[in-house]
Write a structure and sequence with these properties.
Elements lengths: L2 H26 L5 H5 L2 H13 L14 E3 L5 E6 L20 E5 L28 E3 L4 E7 L11 H18 L1 H5 L2 E7 L2 E6 L13 E2 L4 E4 L11 E6 L9 E2 L1 E3 L10 E4 L15
Parallel strand pairs: 1-12
Antiparallel strand pairs: 2-3, 2-13, 3-10, 4-9, 5-6, 5-8, 6-7, 7-10, 10-11
Length: 284
């Protein structure tokens, strides 16, 4: 087990420790002080802080950290959110290999995507969002090393009460449950040269490939969904230096003809753009 994997396992165990201490107190009548129950949370968050700052980029890459050029993973009109063009780590943490990750939401026309509301509606159905069911395409020739779509697509978290529920309750449970519950349904491609592409929050039951399949750039992999730690149907895309997000570190990317769109930037991807050959070598 790698040191990074061990650290994430320790973090999740420490988050569970208060529940074990409460159970022990009830069973054995230990009459413990209240602070005894929350004591494990201090080292838990110390580990989390270290993981958030540990290893933003792979050691094997040069100081310049040249981005890997790949084809866009979608076609049509989309908007970028949480972009590494604005800051790194783009999602506020280096954990789970997401230093250079990006979120994108479909915007086929202005106003087509429901916006955040303060109180009502509390949640929306996935089919209200144009990203839901959109094709997700291979960004380069490669091999499928991870593919899962067993997690459900939940309702949106696009109101204040729903967002608070996600941040204060649901996200914590997913964190304890492991990275699979965080990224939800996902596909990981081995692009060769130690580079892996991950597509997260995939639609349940939409996989068009299996682990071990070889794919070509532009090939359909799955469809955009709302599984895992997600507020609305969208694609979370990232390059990393290993197939396991628990141990991987992020790798910078750029999309052919687009580069890296900034937060709020709307970009269009013609169908032929996804057919371009990536500069990342194919796996052997």
């Amino acid at each position: 087990m790698s040191l990074r994997k061990l650290a994430m396992t320790a973090f999740r165990c420490l988050l569970l420790a208060p529940f074990g201490l409460i159970a022990a107190d009830l069973i054995f009548d230990l009459d413990s002080r209240w602070w005894w129950y929350v004591l494990p949370l201090a080292p838990a968050f110390a580990v989390l802080i270290v993981m958030n700052r540990w290893g933003g980029t792979p050691d094997r890459r040069p100081a310049a950290h040249e981005p890997v050029a790949v084809a866009p993973p979608v076609t049509g009109r989309w908007t970028a959110l949480n972009s590494p063009a604005d800051r790194t780590p783009s999602h506020g943490t280096h954990a789970y290999g997401q230093t250079f990750a990006i979120d994108i939401v479909a915007e086929p026309e202005p106003g087509a995507r429901p916006r955040f509301r303060l109180l009502w509606p509390l949640a929306r159905r996935n089919r209200d969002f144009p990203a839901f069911g959109a094709p997700l395409l291979a960004v380069a020739d490669g091999m499928v090393v991870r593919a899962t779509d067993r997690h459900r697509d939940h309702l949106s978290r696009t109101s204040l009460p729903a967002l608070l529920y996600l941040m204060l309750a649901e996200a914590s449970v997913r964190e304890i449950s492991g990275v699979g519950r965080i990224v939800g349904n996902h596909v990981v491609l081995d692009l060769g040269d130690g580079t892996y592409a991950m597509y997260a929050h995939v639609q349940r039951g939409s996989l068009a490939v299996r682990e071990g399949d070889r794919v070509r750039a532009g090939q359909l992999l799955a469809r955009c969904g709302n599984s895992g730690n997600s507020t609305e149907p969208h694609l979370h895309f990232q390059l990393m230096d290993g197939p396991d997000p628990d141990t991987a570190r992020g790798i910078p990317f750029e999309w052919h003809g687009i580069g890296v769109p900034r937060n709020g930037e709307v970009f269009d991807v013609p169908a032929e753009a996804t057919q371009e050959t990536s500069q990342a070598p194919s796996p052997t």
